[in-house]
Amino acid sequence: MSDTANHKILIVEDEEAIREMLSFTLHRAGYEVLEAVDARIGKERLREKPDLVLLDWMLPGISGVEFARRLRQDPVSANLPIIMLTARGEEESKLKGFEAGVDDFVTKPFSTQELLARIKAILRRSRNQPGEEMIAIEGMELDTAGHRLRIEGKPLDLGPTEFRLLSFFMGHAERVFSRDQLLDQVWGDNVYIEDRTVDVHIRRLRRALEPYGYDRHIQTVRGAGYRFSRHL
Ligand code: CA
User: Fold this and answer.
1) 117 Cα: distance to centroid of ligand 1 (angstroms)
2) How many CA atoms lie within 13 A of 223 on its CB side?
3) pTM for the full model?
4) Which of 7, 9, 88, 139 could form a disulfide with 152 if both were Cys (CB 3.0 to 4.6 A apart)?
5) From the CA of 13, how far away is ligand 1's center (Å)?
6) How many angstroms is it from 116 CA to the middle of ligand 1?
7) What is the pLDDT of residues 71-98, one digit of tens each?
């Protein structure tokens, strides 16, 4: 498997020529590419679950740095890697960018090799974070790449939706998610699914975990949604 396999990159850039050049370069390097001309569309495309955002500093409407700040504040995109594209002369704004939660900067005009190297480095770093491949909480071990769950050393089969749900919860422990947020994150952009579906799958997941007592980690937060908590 190549380094770029299955990685999706969202480009938020209003200048068409630069956007097309980036898109071409990334495609050729083996990435899947999502494009947006501004922050509003960029936010919509988050539903397609990019692994990294290439974000232009100067955007019409919401600026790149403001968009980065919003991404960090939203629990569902809080850990999404961001590389900011700046023009020469905007470099002194880097501090503002880092404060907003940007992971790295690339100054225009940049070389293709430099950009690809930065992307690779950031993706490697984020892959090594807990929450990406192996997540262990209490006696539960989740291998998100291999789609396997072991409870106290023993494999437990879950339905694919229950697996994704548990994987999302374990990767974002202690945070409360509304049904809408869970639909976006776990089901993606399937608009035909009702909020109630979330409750159905939560119930199935709890039932599967119940014999081991781990169902209690999935907590209902009245009026808000659900939370996976390490603490019982
Ligand atoms: Ca621009």
Assistant:
1) 22
2) 0
3) 0.57
4) 139
5) 6
6) 20
7) 988 877 877 899 999 887 776 677 788 7
- Residues near ion ligand 1 (CB < 5 Å) are 14, 56, 58
Q: Does domain 8-127 have CATH number 3.40.50.2300?
A: yes
Q: How many angstroms does the Cα of residue 60 sit away from the middle of ligand 1?
A: 7
- Token couple for 171: 């990767």
Beta-carbon-side half-sphere exposure of residue 150 (alpha carbons within 13 Å):
9
- Ligand 1 centroid, distance to 112 Cα (angstroms): 18
Report angle CA 162, 165, 171 to the nearest 5 degrees: 135
Q: How far apart are CA 185 and CA 78, in angstroms?
A: 13
Q: Architecture of 134-228 per CATH?
A: Orthogonal Bundle (1.10)
Three-class SS state of 208: helix
Domain range summary for the chain, segments of one domain joined by +: 8-127, 134-228
Q: Using an 8 Å Cβ cutoff, are 93 and 21 in contact?
A: no
Distance from Cα 86 to the centre of ligand 1, integer Å: 9
CA of 92 to the centre of ligand 1 (A): 17
User: Running along the chain, 232 residues long, what does each successive block of 10 average in pLDDT?
Assistant: 71 96 95 96 93 94 93 83 85 76 86 91 67 76 84 88 90 90 77 78 95 95 93 79
Ligand 1 midpoint to CA 152 (Å): 51
pLDDT for the residue 104: 86
